[in-house]
Design goal:
Distance between the termini of chain A: 33 Å
Largest interface: A-B, 78 and 83 residues
Number of strands of chain A: 3
Strand content of chain A: under 5%
Radius of gyration of chain A: 23 Å
Helix content of chain A: 55-70%
Oligomer: homotrimer
Order of helices and strands of chain A: HEHHHEEHHHHHHHHHHHHH
Shape of chain A: globular
Strand order of the largest sheet of chain A: 1-3-2
Chain lengths: 467, 467, 467
């Protein structure tokens, strides 16, 4: 086994970056008014009568659901690989923990810098946004899963979180697009960033047979799927406006996700032999309805509109796993371990388009004048926008996101291709042994048994095993 | 292996039903006031000052807990079978996703149809009720687990959700019974509906040895148990009145569930050989206290009353697993895979009775006059009810539920017995291979090793294996 | 296998104690105002206008997170042992369910006894505190894991919950220390209590090779780790003052925990061979940042202060696993199964010290005069305290906790050493078979295969296996 020299590289990068975080937090990050001990004084000056009118009580339950999706959802979803469970859950844990710190800074500089004192003021909404940024990194991680070192992952996270904040700033603040659940900022960005990287890191001699599951690893993966699926309504509504927008985001996502399950399983059964269902599709295609509602969830999409989006995206995502992924690998040399193109790429694009159409179709009759202004932020610089203009800006936001993700991914891909980041050799891909202490005893027994049986069986061609 | 022809049946039913849902949602389902973009306008006309006074903030955390119980709780609880993990989690996912859509319609027509425009108005409480309906279907699923095809399950769901809404309408709206946590509407109904079906689908030659667990499948199952157990307080209080009723429902359920754990483990240890504890009882009997509080949780049952109910139901449920289940199979030919009679049937009946007694014993001294009216809904048509009369109606509601569940189960059972739904042969019961793509490599090694060892060991009778 | 005579002991103790709980609850425990059916009447007399101003809506989401940590977090964290998964999750379930009942009584007598009627009035905050008490017991359980009987565990719980309430009363009520997340009351107390017991129960001939994991047991354990990690912000803020204190507790914990992940993994990689990461450190060291913020989370520690605490405690905790644990076992004869000294002992002491310093450093400039009074409870008997005096009392509280935990642990240790509690023999330690019905078939095959292979391989020294 190639020595990846992780012993110095990994600790060094972890310590240096953690130290940098401490220093930067010390210089820049402070509590916002609602999390400061002075809040009781402040709120009385603002005539806020109830302690409950603290953003904490509006958003904390949603935040915790998002937190579960990022750490358990993504982490366990990727444990489907038979010998990469530690790497899936463990690296997920590591890079998400770094990303949320760095995101608090990056997003803070762009979105919540208090110019009066030069400090970033954070509260529960900042934590949700930091988790969102980490989610985007974890999507890209799904594309390169099993083929890179933890050092490469940390470097990728650093660049991706940075570019994420830039893209977010351009499309939300400059263009004034709406994207509460992140079809564009999170999913499209994460997917095409990751796919570009995995293309550049193409390994022609990779043994794809290791990219497989065993019975119990598929069950572990279902833990991830279900937590993502159940909490997606929280994800899509966590940073929406207080009140009806959060409420509506939950209803729309609930409907859409339910529809995806039926169509993903139906498509799986149509195309697998004898109508059997493939767990890969259940683990992934069922989630497409959540991704595809990331932009429009808070809008007046209507429950049946949500069902249509969910049913379509579940169908298309599952078809992608069956037909598109092999083509992408064969012709474009994109080795997409988790199929992020099918789960986040295509459904993300669908979500962006659905969002643009839903915005363009908004009317005062449906939203009320005040509702329209609230829902799309038609204030200040955007006060004279009409819904159809907003639709155009939504579409422009998708284009910007695609450009930045592919462009950024290309740069980062070439950085990660440098030969000193300790990546695994082709034979060690999808294997925990390279980077993790793996329990030996019982497992070794299993492996040797397996090996033996294969050997034992070879000499005979009939069903019985001869000794 | 019998070809179940799932390839056309399953996709067809999924697509047609999903299409039907889209059309019916399009015709009937709209946002309610609190999830509409017009809400800010509406709430000011009603003098609601705070954005927080949106039902979303009262119920969303409970909703998410219920959602976890339905998809992870029930799904993983049933993974105890050694070779039916995919079917347990996967079919659970499929039928729950269909049931919640159909339930929004059925319950909507009965309970939240706005006669002014003929539309069903949905909000977060509708989602909770839809999840409750799905829970009832999943209880019935536990009875037939491993012995039916996904097509049969979807047909069962269609009928069960329909009849669930009818029963709910009769006992809650017509009879005016209270059943916030669903001892009757969810548990009794689901259990006896499912047991009647499994009786009609009786398989005399079923090999019950496959109905067993392995070490890790028992641990997966404990994930389900614990999530059900922890979130049951949310389940029993999710649709209670705002304020003290939700608060009290949580306290009562918390106490009851804790008591069930001690008595279930005690009974297990008494009756298993050498005082060992049986995981089946830990996985199930510990939950009886939640079921048995489904009706009375929101009432002034007192914490010690809750402990008594929990201790008793944990005891009786576990005794049911040990003594009653074998008798039911032998004499009544009821093959109850998960023991739903012990976990939902009996404790549900206990819960209904406890609810009737607690209601009948309510006094103004304990509740206050206003509290009594709030707690039991003594308004409008029920304004002149007394607690003892209420107790009588609670008991009547149990009888109606029992009748409808057995009657409905019988009809649906005969429908499911029709020979073209692709059910598995007796040898394929409790096996994922019929309906799922199952990873082969490593597992095959295990199986063949197992087989070999049995072979190898046969010639000798001493402990050592000879080759 | 030694007969532990659990058949009578375990059921007897469960039934008697549950009966005692029912009687004591009947005599002492009642609903508090906010969970009583009279609450609507009461709140109007107090001019509380909104139903939302019920403590339920401030604390229930946090309560459920804590509940998950206690039952799934601790339970699954301990499943890392290859053959003790049932015992880890199952005994965790049993003793936590007893502890929360007993804690409601013990904490009630000390903290919420209504002297007007001699009753304990409980609400959602009581449930959180009861769960906290159970958490302390489960920490101690981690020290003796695999080496004691369920009867010993129940006896330990009885004494520990009792002494927990005494210690809590002394340090919070008498000394006026602050410890919202329980660095002292929960972690230091639980750890040193458990370590003292495991010292007294020292087994010189214990085969530590059974104290090991297998591949999938490490993944199950990660479920526990992640739920503890994700929900720790709720744990540290669940009983803080409404509003900014809860909000701040979440932000601080979030930062601290993220930093621990990076330093724990870095240290693991430095000291393991070839820079590989050890799952034990990922499962435990990453959580140190939550423990170490138990006292100061609600204070104005600042986000960068939290990062420093998290980074340091993750480092020290992981170093403890690598260097200190072997020494403790060798020289002090402390067999600490889960390494509770590294996860709860040392980080708890750090947390107490950080809390004392942060309190002593508090100023009116940062907190505002009113904020200072709120944050440290400078009212009534403590009205004339200054921050620096408060810091002194915080330090005193740590000393009291250390004394009481070691002293109490010693007494309880000797009680548990009595020969009739059915403890396992040395050979049966870390084995589920003693106390649990374990599925035999497939597992037996695996074991025999393993055994065979070892046998088969012995005669030859080269890599190939000869038959």
């Amino acid at each position: 086994m190639k020595d990846t020299l992780m012993r110095w590289k990994l600790p060094l990068i972890c310590f240096i970056w953690q130290l940098a975080m401490i220093i930067l937090f010390g210089v820049f990050i402070r509590y916002d008014d609602e999390s400061s001990a002075r809040w009781n004084v402040i709120r009385r000056t603002r005539n806020i009568t109830s302690v409950l009118e603290n953003d904490f009580y509006f958003r904390y339950p949603s935040f915790q659901d998002v937190h579960v999706m990022v750490f358990v959802g993504f982490g366990f979803l990727m444990t489907f690989l038979k010998r990469y469970g530690f790497g899936s859950v463990g690296f997920n844990f590591l890079i998400a923990s770094f990303s949320i710190q760095w995101a608090l800074l990056m997003q803070g500089w762009f979105h919540s810098l208090d110019y009066s004192d030069g400090k970033i003021k954070i509260g529960v909404e900042s934590l949700i946004n930091a988790d969102f940024s980490a989610a985007s990194v974890l999507i890209a991680f799904g594309g390169v899963l099993g083929k890179v070192s933890p050092v490469q992952l940390l470097i990728m996270s650093l660049f991706q979180v940075t570019l994420y904040a830039v893209n977010e700033f351009i499309i939300l603040t400059v263009l004034g697009a709406r994207d509460a659940g992140g079809s564009m900022v999170i999913h499209v960005f994460g997917a095409y960033f990751g796919l570009t990287i995995t293309r550049i890191l193409y390994r022609p001699n990779l043994d794809q047979r290791k990219n497989e599951s065993v019975y119990h690893s598929d069950l572990f993966s279902m833990i991830g799927t279900l937590y993502l699926w159940m909490f997606w309504p929280s994800f899509n509504s966590a940073i929406s406006n207080h009140g009806d927008a959060q409420h509506r985001g939950v209803i729309n996502s609930y409907c859409s996700l339910a529809a995806s399950v039926l169509t993903a399983i139906a498509i799986s059964s149509v195309f697998e032999k004898k109508g059997k269902i493939n767990m890969v599709h259940v683990q992934n295609g069922t989630l497409a309805g959540g991704v595809a509602l990331g932009t429009a969830a808070e809008m007046m999409l209507t429950p049946y509109g949500s069902l249509i989006v969910g049913a379509l995206s579940g169908t298309i995502s599952t078809l992608g796993f069956i037909f598109l992924s092999p083509l992408l690998e064969k012709y474009l040399k994109i080795q997409d371990t988790c199929g992020i193109h099918n789960l986040h790429g295509i459904p993300g694009v669908i979500g962006a388009i659905v969002g643009a159409i839903t915005a363009a179709a908004a009317t005062e009759g449906v939203y009320s004048r005040e509702g329209l202004i609230d829902a799309f932020g038609f204030v200040d610089g955007f006060a004279d926008r009409t819904p159809s203009v907003q639709g155009g800006f939504q579409a422009a936001a998708l284009c910007v996101t695609l450009l930045l993700s592919v462009g950024g991914g290309a740069v980062v891909g070439f950085i990660l291709k440098l030969p000193f980041w300790g990546d695994p050799s082709d034979e060690n891909c999808f294997e925990d042994e390279v980077y993790w202490e793996v329990p030996t005893e019982e497992e070794a027994a299993l492996h040797s048994v397996h090996y033996e049986n294969n050997q034992l069986k070879k000499p005979t061609s009939n069903g019985d095993t001869q000794q």
